Amino acid sequence: MFSKKVKSRIVLLILSILFFVLIIFFIFRSLEENLVYFFSPTEIYNNQNLSLNKTIRIGGLVKEGSTSRKENTINFIITDLKNEIVVSYNGLVPNLFSEGKGVVAEGKLTDKKYFIANKILAKHDENYMPPEVSKALEKSN
Amino acid sequence: MLKNFFPNKILKINTKLINKIAIFMLIIIGLGLVYSLILSPEDYIQGDSVRIMYVHVPSSLIALGCFAVMGIASILNLLFNIKFLSLISKSLAPIGGIFTLISIITGSLWGKPTWGIWWVWDARLTSMFILFCFYIAYILSWKLISNFKKANKISSIIAIIGLFNLPVIKYSVDWWNTLHQPSSITLTSAPTIHHTMLIPLIIMFFGLLIYSLIIFLMKYKIEIIKFKLKKKNEK
Lengths: 141, 235
Fold this sequence. Notes:
The complex is a heterodimer of chains A (141) and B (235). With 141 residues, chain A is of the alpha+beta class. Chain A is 34% helix and 31% strand. Chain A has 3 helices and 6 strands. Chain A is elongated and about 75 Å long. Chain A starts with a helix and ends with a helix. Chain B has 235 residues and is mostly helical. Chain B has a domain at 54-180 and 216-234. Helices cover 77% and strands 0% of the residues of chain B. Chain B contains 8 helices and no strands. In chain B, helix 2 (15-39) runs antiparallel to helix 8 and helix 3 (53-80) runs parallel beside helix 8. The longest helix of chain B is centred in the last third of the chain and has 40 residues, at 195-234. Chain B is globular and about 65 Å long. Chain B starts with 6 loop residues before the first helix and ends with a helix. The relative contact order of chain B is 0.17. Chains A and B meet through helix 1, strand 6 and helix 3 of A and helix 3 and helix 4 of B.
C-alpha cells in the first residue's frame, strides 16, 4: 500500500513515539512528589519519612464547626474524611474560605497532627449553580 | 471534508463568504455575551466572577483543539510529505497560542478572587504554561528558519512532541492533587454545572470557534499565496 520510503518513516515515527512515551513516563515517575500540589491528611499520616522543617502544602475540606478565631489567628481542621490535621494560621483568609469547602494550606508541620500555615488558598470544586438552586438543594438534604 | 481544505479550494474563497461567516459569528457572540453577562445567574459561592468562565473554558478548549490538529497534521505531513498540511498547522499556531494566553490570563483573573492567588505551579497550570511554550517554539521555528524544508521538519517535530502534553493537561486534575478544580463537563457523567450556566458556555464556545475558523481561513489563504509566490520566484 505504501511506498518503501513512507514505510520506513512510519516505523521511525512509531519507534520515536514509543521512545518519548518511555522517557516521559520515567520523568513523571521521578517527579511524582513534586507534581502533587498538596498532600491530603491521609498521605501525611501514611508517610514514614516526613521532614518537619520542609515547607509543604496540605489540602482537604475545612471540617464543619472546627473554625475558631482569636484576634488575627484562625484555627481549623483540614479533613479528608479519614484523617485530620489541625491548622493554625495568622492572617486574613480568602473570601471563599468556608466550612465544608476545599482549602489548601502552605506551611510546616510541627507533628503529624498539627500544622502552622503561612498561606491559605481556597480551593473551588467543579460545582457551578445559582444561589437559589444551592438553597433548594440544602433544603432537600 | 478534507478536500475543502485543499489549497485550490481555499484560494477560491472570497471576502464575501468570510464576511457572511463574520456576521453569523457576531450574532452568536452577541447572543452569548448577553446570555452570559446579563441573563445567567451568579454562582452560589463565586458570585459574579463565575462569568470569567464563559471566556476561560472555550479559550482553553480551542487552545487544546488547535494543537491537537497541528500535531496530527504534522504526523501525516512527516509521513507522507503533504505540503498543505504544514501550511494548515502554521496558520493554526497563532490562533491556538493567543487562546492559550487568553486562557492563562482569564484564569489568573479568576484565581485571585477565588483561590486568593494569581498563579500557582500546580499540574494543570504548569502543563498549560508548557503548552504556551510549545506554541511559541513552533511559531519561532517558522519565523527563524528561512529554508522551508528545514522549518517544516523542525516545526513538525515540535508539534508532535507537544502532542504528548495534551493528555497531561486534560487528565492533570485527575492524576494529581491540583488547586485547579476537575472538569465540570465529562463524557461519562452528568455535568456538575447548572443548565442556566451551561447554555451560555456552549454558545460562547461556538462563537469563539467560528471566530477561530474565520481567522484560520484568512491566515491559511495568505500562507498558500505566500507559498506559491515563493515557488514561482525560485523558478
